[in-house]
Design brief:
single chain; about 425 residues; alpha/beta; UDP-n-acetylglucosamine1-carboxyvinyl-transferase, Chain; four-stranded mixed beta sheet; 14 helices; about 25% strand; globular; binds ligand EPZ
C-alpha cells in the first residue's frame, strides 16, 4: 500500500484550486437513477469514492462516461432502465453513502434489495432514520441477513417527517425518494449543509419541485417523472478548510480559488481568533501566517452552519502547536478522535476523555511514522507533519485517496515537501 512522506518546515506560497465536493458528487450521482435521460455533472472530483459508487451504479444499469470539459472533469450518467435493483454488500461496504441508492431505486422501480452499510471507524452510524423515513413514505421494509428488502409497488406517497436529530444522509436520502412520490413531503429538522442545497438545485433542474433546502424545513412536491440536466458540483468545503488549515500550520501565504468562503465561515472565524490572517475574495480566500505563534481556541462540532466534524481532526493538528490549551468537543460521531494518539507520536500533548479532547500546545513537533485511520484523520497527520521537524511517513493513505484529489500535487505546487511512496503490495502493519 502507498505511503506519503512529508518533510516539515517549508512555508507554503501560491494558489490551490479547490475541487468539486465529494459529499455532493456522490449524492448527485445517485440522483441519476431517477431518470431515463442523461445527467451531466461537471466540476466532478475524481476520487476513490466516486469510483466505488460508479461501480455500483453500472451494476444497477447506469452507463457512465467520464471526460474533460470547460468546467473541469465531467461525468455523464445515463440510466435508460434499472437492470437490477440489487446493491450487494461488497459494493455498499466500500463506501457507506452507496446505501443512498435505496430511495431512488424504490422511487423508480417500486422495489429494491440493498445491503446495510455496516459499522464504520468513526462511529456506529446506524441508518434507522433513513429506514423510518422511507417507511413514512409508504415503503414496506424488511431486514434479513444484512439486507434491506423494500417494496412500494404502487409508488411512494408524500408525508410529513420530523427528524429527531439532524442527519445529512437521511435528509438527502428522503429527498432523493420523495421527488417522485405522490403528493407533498415536508421534512422538519432537516440538515442544512450546502450539499443539500446542491442536491435540491440539481433535482429541480431535472424537473423536481423542492423548496427550502438550506433551511430546516424542506418541502417536496412529488412529480411523475424527471428529465436529464447539466449541473456543476459545488466546491468542496472540507477540502477548502483543510488547505486553509494546512497553510496556517505551515505558515506563508496561500490563495484558495474556485471555492466559497461562506461555506467555511465558522472555521475561518476560529482561525482568525487563533491569529491567522484571512482575506475573503469572490472566488475563495487568502490565508496568511507570518510565523508568530497561534493562540489556542476552543471548538465544538455541530451540524452546519456549526463547526464541521469533518474539519475537527485538521483543526486539532493546528492546535498542537498553539500557545495554551484548546478544548475540542466532538458532538456528531462518538469515536472521532483516533488521530489523537497518532498526533501524539509526533509529540503533541492531547488528553481525550469521552467526546472531549484537551490539546496543550507544544513548542515543536517531530517527524515520525504514523498511521491514517480515516479520511479526515489522515489529512490531519499530513497537516501536522508540514510543521514538524524532520520526516513523517503516513501509512494507509488509501483513506486519503477516498476524499482528496491530487493532495500531494496541490501541496507540492505551493512548496511543501510531500511525496508518495508507491507500495510494494506487502502488508504494512
Ligand atoms: C455525512 O455523513 C458525511 N458523509 C460525513 O462525512 C459527515 O461527517 C457527516 O455527514 C456529518 O456532517 C457524506 O456526506 C457521504 P449524519 P452522514 O447522518 O450522512 C447519526 C467524510 O469524511 N445517525 O449527518 O452519515 C450518525 O451515527 C464523511 O466525508 C443515526 O443515528 O452523517 C451520526 O452520529 C465522514 N441514525 C449523526 O447521526 C441515522 O439513521 C449524524 O450523521 C443516521 C445518522
Amino acid at each position: 500500500m502507498d505511503r506519503i512522506a512529508i518533510t516539515g518546515g517549508a512555508r507554503l506560497e501560491g494558489e490551490i484550486v479547490i475541487s468539486g465536493a465529494k459529499n455532493s458528487a456522490i449524492k448527485l450521482m445517485a440522483a441519476s437513477l431517477l431518470t431515463d435521460q442523461p445527467l451531466r455533472l461537471t466540476n466532478m472530483p475524481r476520487l476513490a469514492d466516486t469510483r466505488f459508487l460508479g461501480q455500483l451504479l453500472r451494476r444497477l444499469g447506469t452507463d457512465i462516461v467520464e471526460q474533460d470539459g470547460d468546467d473541469g472533469a465531467e461525468t455523464i450518467l445515463h440510466t435508460r432502465e434499472i437492470v437490477s435493483a440489487f446493491a450487494p454488500y461488497e459494493l455498499v461496504r466500500q463506501m457507506r453513502a452507496s446505501f443512498n441508492v435505496l430511495g431512488p431505486l424504490i422511487a423508480r422501480t417500486g422495489h429494491a434489495k440493498v445491503s446495510l452499510p455496516g459499522g464504520c471507524t468513526i462511529g456506529a452510524r446506524p441508518v434507522d432514520l433513513h429506514l423510518e423515513a422511507l417507511r413514512a413514505l409508504g415503503a414496506s421494509i424488511d431486514l434479513h441477513e444484512g439486507y434491506v428488502y423494500a417494496q412500494a409497488p404502487r409508488g411512494l406517497v408524500g408525508a410529513e417527517i420530523e427528524f429527531p436529530f439532524v442527519s445529512v444522509g437521511a435528509t438527502e436520502h428522503v429527498m432523493l425518494a420523495a421527488v417522485l412520490a405522490k403528493g407533498e413531503t415536508v421534512l422538519k429538522n432537516a440538515a442544512r449543509e450546502p450539499e443539500l442545497g446542491d442536491l435540491a438545485e440539481c433535482l429541480n433542474k431535472m424537473g423536481a419541485q423542492v423548496s427550502g433546502a438550506g433551511t430546516s424545513t424542506i418541502r417536496i412536491q412529488g412529480v411523475d417523472h424527471l428529465n436529464g440536466a447539466t449541473h456543476s458540483v459545488i466546491p468542496d468545503r472540507i477540502e477548502t478548510g483543510t488547505f486553509a488549515l494546512a497553510a496556517a500550520m505551515a505558515g506563508g501565504e496561500v490563495r484558495l480559488t474556485k471555492t466559497r468562503s461562506d461555506f467555511v465561515d465558522t472555521l475561518l472565524d476560529k482561525m482568525v481568533e487563533a491569529g491567522v490572517e484571512v482575506i475573503r475574495h469572490n472566488d475563495g480566500m487568502t490565508i496568511k501566517r507570518n510565523g508568530a505563534r497561534l493562540k489556542a481556541v476552543e471548538i465544538e462540532t455541530d451540524p452546519y452552519p456549526g463547526f464541521a466534524t469533518d474539519l475537527q481532526a485538521q483543526f486539532m493538528a493546528l492546535m498542537t502547536l498553539a500557545d495554551g490549551e484548546s478544548v475540542i468537543k466532538e458532538t456528531i460521531f462518538e469515536n472521532r478522535f483516533m488521530h489523537a494518539p497518532e498526533l501524539a507520536r509526533l509529540g503533541a500533548d492531547i488528553l481525550v476523555s469521552g467526546g472531549e479532547a484537551r490539546v496543550r500546545g507544544v513548542e515543536t513537533l517531530e517527524g515520525a511514522q504514523v498511521m491514517a485511520t480515516d479520511l479526515r484523520a489522515s489529512v490531519s497527520l499530513v497537516i501536522a507533519a508540514l510543521a514538524a521537524r524532520g520526516e513523517t511517513v503516513v501509512s494507509r493513505v488509501y483513506h486519503l485517496d477516498r476524499g482528496f484529489e491530487r493532495l500531494e500535487e496541490k501541496l507540492s505546487a505551493c512548496g511543501a515537501n510531500v511525496r508518495r511512496i508507491a507500495g510494494t503490495g506487502e502488508p504494512e502493519d
